[in-house]
Every structure is written in C-alpha cells, then in structure tokens.
Amino acid sequence: MPAGTRKNTGPARIRESKTTKRERALEILRRLEGEYPNAKCALNHRNAFELLTATILSAQCTDERVNQVTPALFARYPTPYDLAAARQEELEEIIRSTGFYRNKAKSLLGMAQALVERHGGEVPADMDALVKLPGVGRKTANVVLGNAFGKSEGVVVDTHVKRLAGRMGLTTETDPEKIERDLMELLPQDRWLAVEHLLIWHGRKVCDARRPRCEACVVASLCPTGTGRLEGAAGGTRTVGQPASSTGGDARATERAASPAGAARKGAKR
Ligand code: SF4
Which of 44, 206, 260, 268 could form a disulfide with 14 if both were Cys (CB 3.0 to 4.6 A apart)? Predict the structure, then answer.
C-alpha cells in the first residue's frame, strides 16, 4: 500500500531512554519551527475575553468556522458586561453555525456572568479560577493562559496534538490528560506553548488524520510511524528519511545511525 494512504492513527511504541526521547522531541520541535516560524493560535482575538469566548465556541468546531462567527459576536457583545446581559435566543442565533449552540450559549452567558460577579469583569490569569468558570475546562484554560497571558501551566492536547504525539512516539497514552502529562515531563516548560502550536500546524498541513504525508515530512527520520511507513512503501529497502526522489542513501544512513530516532527505531513496533 503506498505511503500516505494507509490509515495509521494509534500511538507508536518505541524503546528509548528518557534522555534520548527528550533529545528527539526537542529536535522535532526545532525542525517544525523551521517549517512554521509563524505558528500561533489560529483563533482570532484581541484580548483574553475574546480568546476565552472563541475557545469555548471552538469545541467540536473548526477554528475557521469560529473565526467567521466571532466578528459579529464581538461587535454585539464587546465586554463581559455586554455578554452577561445578552438574551440567550439572540446569542444562540449568532453562534448557531458553530454547533451545539444551545449549550455553548449557556456556557458563554454563565462565563460572562461569573466574570462580572467574581472577577470584576476581567478574565483571571489563573488556572484554578479559570476552570471554575462555566464551560471552561483545563484545555480551554491552557489556551487562554498560554496565548493571552504568556503563562504555560500545561500543554493543550487537542485532536492534532493527541494524534501526532502518538504517531511520533512521544506518548503511548490516549487520554488527553495523560498525554499532557507525558509532554510536560518530556519538554521544558518554556517549550509547552510551542509544542502545541507546532503539532497543531503540522497536523493540519502534513500529518493528516487519514493520510499523513510522511514522504514530505521534515520530521520523518525522527518519527517511528513515518520511518515505518516509508520503509514499508519502499519494500523494506528504503533508508529512513530519504527523500522520495532520491536513490542515494549513505548520508541519510549515517544520520539515522547517529540520530536519537535511529537508535530508538531498532526497537520500534506498532
Ligand atoms: S512522519 Fe510526519 S507525517 Fe508521517 S506520521 Fe510522522 S509526523 Fe506524521
């Protein structure tokens, strides 16, 4: 089966030391930063309140769709005080296309009322206070803390981060909170915001859920899923990380032997 067509979404298991895995994870981030130097939160916002609102709307919805809805929403309710006083039916109508609009409208109203009643109309820059707001879980709180306040208290694990961290062998977990814990252990705190943005961007552009384009991936030589797929597509003779159009392989073979992934891949299994 050609590379890029096989469905392969489960976490990859590889044997490697913690040190090797850390080095590999950091090199993956370095390469992805080279690819996506402008990776950032895709939800349009001008302040913490707008980001909190947009993030609540993004549940089970694409960021693009949310970005289509929020200009009218923010114009109608520019502050928590305005949103707290909104009529639920009117709010539902504005956000209807994001799906689950009744529950989301309730969450937005509850969130805005709590901001007004408990926080003087300000979004708190604090995990404990954020997760007490209606409609706000740890994931939403992490998005707001990281992107609006520059505070990394965790790693946002969305569908892309979950899929890519598994494929890259950075975690064997499938529960988002356990994946977050693994990534936090693996990476220094000042990389937590970067890892979520970079994995999300790479997931959208290259490591598609159904058709990962391993042959075009800059981290293929560091990814057990990618190396397995590329070798399988080449009948087991292809060198890890070798571009699809190339027939030479000595330099790549040397790189593989010297790289954390090369060592790790020996024990790689699905
Ligand atoms: S090599 Fe790249 S595209 Fe393929 S599974 Fe790994 S991260 Fe995804």
Answer: 268
pLDDT value for 242 = 34
In this predicted structure, which of 22-31, 123-132, 247-256 has the lowest mean pLDDT? 247-256
Per residue, what are the HEC states of the chain?
Answer: CCCCCCCCCCCCECCCCHHHHHHHHHHHHHHHHHHCCCCCCCCCCCCHHHHHHHHHHCCCCCHHHHHHHHHHHHHHCCCHHHHHCCCHHHHHHHHHHHCCHHHHHHHHHHHHHHHHHHHCCCCCCCHHHHCCCCCCCHHHHHHHHHHHHCCCCCCCCCHHHHHHHHHCCCCCCCCHHHHHHHHHHHCCHHHHHHHHHHHHHHHHHCECCCCECHHHCCCHHHCHHHHHHHHHHCCCCCCCCCCCCCCCCHHHHHHHHHCHHHHHHCCCEC
Q: Is the pLDDT of residue 250 over 50?
A: no
Q: For residue 259, give the CATH number of its domain.
A: 1.10.1670.10
Q: How much is the pLDDT for 9?
A: 54
Query: Is the beta carbon of 28 within 6 A of some atom in ligand 1?
Result: no
Residue-number span of the structural domain to which 79 is assigned: 48-149
